[in-house]
Amino acid sequence: MDNLTNWKEALKERTLYGCFVTFGLADIAEMTAMMGFDFLVLDNEHGVIEQSTLADMVRASQLRGVPAIVRCTMKEYDHIQKALDFGANGVLLPLVNTAEDARRVVDMANYYPDGHRGAAYLPRASHYGMVEDKRAYLKQANACKLVACQVETREAVEHLDEILAVDGIDVYFIGPGDLAASYDEPTGSPRMLELTERVIRQIVAAGRTAGYYVGTPEAAKQAEGWGARFLLTAVNQYMVAGGRSFLSRVRGGQEIAARSAY
Fold first, then answer.
1. What is the C-alpha separation between 21 and 42, in angstroms, rounded?
2. DSSP state at residue 86
3. Structural domain tally of the chain?
4. Which residues, 6+ apart, have CB-to-CB distance to 254 below 8 Å?
5. Do the domain assignments include residue 260?
6. What residue spans of 71-189 are helical by DSSP H?
């Protein structure tokens, strides 16, 4: 598995289940990849991850046969360029609120003629200069990488039809936390669930792929029923749940409840 593997074609046939990794450690990325997820998203928006560590996390996931997407800190050229140059299988960009935002993202993530990403043949993405046909590499790199934009604000919802009309976005990922905050609603409230269903169905009706964050298998099945095909969970909650379950059984529930209150 490398950045020139066209893994995203599977989205046309089935739902893919991925996992956020927020800890800056290649071992955690490798361990999570070994769990059986279809892809990982290495969270460089909210996680604290140095660039060299992020590159090692991409490598660790790919060596286990699992695509690694980088959620960039910002939807800016240097963040997208770095992630793709060290061989990530795609990028997830926050706060894509307008069609102009979407067009800029596509432009920055693609080599000419599809965009203006800077061509370089020495980074890991181009096999450290060992790709034999450079023109073929540029075309293949454009085709294989995944570009996902986050629909996570009221502004993005209001401009969704225009955003969906932009070619070159592979996944429209709904971020439930930020979206709820922009509507001054609790995450998971009835109003937000209704809005999420409407947005997912709108994305699907436009012939696009919808993504969503899910915390439980039940939420995953619900989102899949609405049409989402790019579903993400996070390793953190399962680590916490497993640890608390163990401690509750060996120490008793009162101490766990007291610690959880802080």
1. 5
2. T
3. 1
4. none
5. no
6. 77-85, 99-109, 134-144, 154-158, 160-164, 176-182
Q: Is 126 a member of any domain? A: yes
Distance of alpha carbon 83 from alpha carbon 62, whole angstroms = 14
Active site residues: 46
Q: Is 133 exposed, middle or buried (0-12, 13-18, 19+ CB in 10 A)?
A: exposed
Give the 3-state secondary structure of residue 111. coil
Give the tens place of pLDDT for each residue, 191-230: 999 999 999 999 999 999 999 999 999 999 999 999 999 9
CATH of the domain at 42: 3.20.20.60
Task: For residue 62, count other CB atoms closer than 10 A to its CB.
Answer: 22
pLDDT in tens, 120-172: 999 999 999 999 999 999 999 999 999 999 999 999 999 999 999 999 999 99
pLDDT computed for residue 259 by the predictor? 46
Please report whether residue 247 resides in a domain: no
Cα angle value 245/248/253 (rounded, 5°):
135
Residue pair 173/75 in contact by the 8 Å Cβ criterion? no
Q: Output the CA–CA distances (angstroms, integers) from residue 195 to 45, 184, 190, 191, 201, in the order listed.
A: 24, 13, 9, 6, 10
In a domain, 262, yes or no: no
What backbone torsions phi and psi does residue 7 show, to the nearest 5 degrees? -70, -25
* Sequence-separated contacts (24+) of 121-125 with Cβ below 8 Å: 123/85, 123/86, 123/87, 124/55, 124/59, 124/85, 124/86, 124/87, 125/3, 125/84, 125/85, 125/86, 125/87
Could you report the per-residue pLDDT of 77-111, keeping only the tens digit for each? 999 999 999 999 999 999 999 999 999 999 999 99
Give residue 171's domain range.
Answer: 7-236
